[in-house]
Every structure is written in structure tokens, then in C-alpha cells.
Amino acid sequence: MSLAPVKPATLGTTDRFLPVWILAAMALGLALAVFVPAFGDALHGFSVGSVSVPIAVGLLVMMYPVLAKVRYSDARAVAGDRKLLVSSLVMNWLVGPALMFALAWAFLPDLPEYRTGLIIVGLARCIAMVLIWNDLACGDREAAAFLVAVNSVFQVIAFSGLGWFYLQILPSWLGLATTSASFSLWAITLSVLVFLGIPLVAGYLSRRLGEATRGRTWYEGTFLPKVGPFALYGLLFTIVMLFALQGQQVIDRPLDVVRIALPLLVYFAVTFIVGFVLGKLIGLSYERTTTLAFTAAGNNFELAIAVAIGTFGATSGQALAGIVGPLIEVPVLVALVYVALWLRPRMFPAKDTLPIHPELPVADRV
After folding, report:
1. Is the C-alpha dihedral spanning 253, 324, 91, 274 positive or negative?
2. Which of 117, 132, 252, 349 pairs with 281 at a CA distance of 20 to 30 A?
């Protein structure tokens, strides 16, 4: 079936200034960390187990509107796209962790704590913010929801085993130093249940109940535009909380942060590019190629930080590496949204592009 040509998407006014809002949120968080240290101390104490309540609230508010927009009846069809599913599993569970392992050893051979922290970041596959970046870049929303769910299952099953492999087995094979670490299965499961399970169930119920009681036209034309802006509010709130919680550590150890940031920059860029090129080579549409690239490039920073703190302590180098992860990831992946939109008309002719959901003008994607 041929698809009608569509006009290449451009960012609306709100989205074009997204880097400005994010930089402002970062600056506000840093200001709170430096000038109101009691605020950060209070946030540190506001946790349930390994879950930071303020971060959890921000992520849930951020993810709900995106998951409420998913047409779950269409998402079932994504499971039949074997090219997308297999390539996503390869990128997330083979390429991503292996690349982070290589970069951690290449950039930080003399800093074992930071190196271990980066390897843990590489094992924590993204189940939260990737939905925002995918939506901004006009990716396939149903495919993103499906792949995030698949990654969540793999995360619970495979995280501990992969940690054992990359911290002990593979280094010993290569004659490198090994690291002993045990990971809490409960912490991993809790992260998945909180940061994906709650907004996924809420989004699914919203669509099912909304369409059943008022119809799809009302749901997509009236309800979604009202809740949509809360994704941006949740994103900015989360960024402020992250910098307020961890900004002082970043300021206290700037050179360490730079050394941690360099392999992360390479990781995000290389993973995204490889995913994008792979999607094009295997014949995926722009929408699904974008989804493949972003789901491969993003990481579950909340899980990585929780695991690092729970295993090595809150003041450890491993925890600092986990903290630097999202501080670098957020601006880099925002930049990659612009890269994806720039590549769209150049790599994907209109006939290979799926129509954008009619309820979602690009200016309102967040």
C-alpha cells in the first residue's frame, strides 16, 4: 500500500526554544544546589527505597501525556515488524553495553570507579525520557512504547547477568582488572514498575476509557491537547531536580566530570548514528528508524544511579558517573532531535514516510 506524501516536519515555536528551556532548568537547578544547599539536602532525604520521589514525580508527569497519545490498538502491529524488533534488541543489549565497556576502558583506564559507573550506565537501557525525544523527532510512538516495554522485560531479566559479564568475565578474558559487584533485582524491578508501569497503565486506561465514553475525535482533538504540555513541564521539573540534587558534586569535581563526559558524548553520538544508519539500511521508515536510534542511544539514568548508590555508596565514583550520565544525555539527545529532523528530508523521501497522527501538530508534540 502506498503512503500519501507528507510535508517534512519542523519544530513548532515551543519546541524550537526547547534548548533554551532546558538550559534555564539546568541553571536553576545549579543555582539551587549552590545557593540553597538545604534544598538539595531535603531532596536527598525524600526517597522511598532507592527511588527519589521528586525525580519519580517529574518522570511520571513527563511520560503520561506521551503514553496517553499512543494508539495501543496500532502498537500490537509493531510486534510483527521483526526487522525493527531484532535490530532494537541487538542495538540495546549487544552494541550499547559493548560500546560503553570499550569507551569506559579507552577513556578511563586509570579511574576504575568512574569506569565501573559508566559500564553500569551502559547496561541500564532507557525506559523513560526516550519517549520524549522520539516524540519530538516525529518518531513512531507506538513502536517506541512497544520497544520500551520489551527493554523493560529484558532489563529485569538480563541486567545482573550482563553486569557480571562486563565487570568480571570479559575483563578477565582480556587480562584487565575486574570489579566485584552484586545488583539488587528488586531495585531493577522497582525502577521498571515505577518509571514505566505507572504511566503506561495510566496512558492505556486514559485512551481506552476516553474513546469508549467520548469517542476518538474528542479524545485526540480535545483531551490530548490539554494534557500534552505537561510532558514539557515534567521534563523541565525533572531537570531542575536532577541538578539541584547532584549539582554540587558536579561543581566540586569539574575535571572528573569532564573526563566522564567525554566517553558519554561519544557513546550517545555513535549509538544514535549507528541506529539511524542501520534503520535506513534495513528499509525501515523514517519514523521507525528514529525510534530505533533513540531507544538505542538513551539510558535509564534513574536505575543506573540507584544501582550505583545501592552497590557502592552515595559518595562513590560510580555514583558520580551515574549522575553525570543524564546531565550529558539531556542536552545531547535534544541536539540529536534536531539532527534527526534535518536528516529526514535528506535520507527519507516522502513516499517512505508514514503520515503523522492527525491529532498531533508538531508544535504540540510536547
Report:
1. negative
2. 132
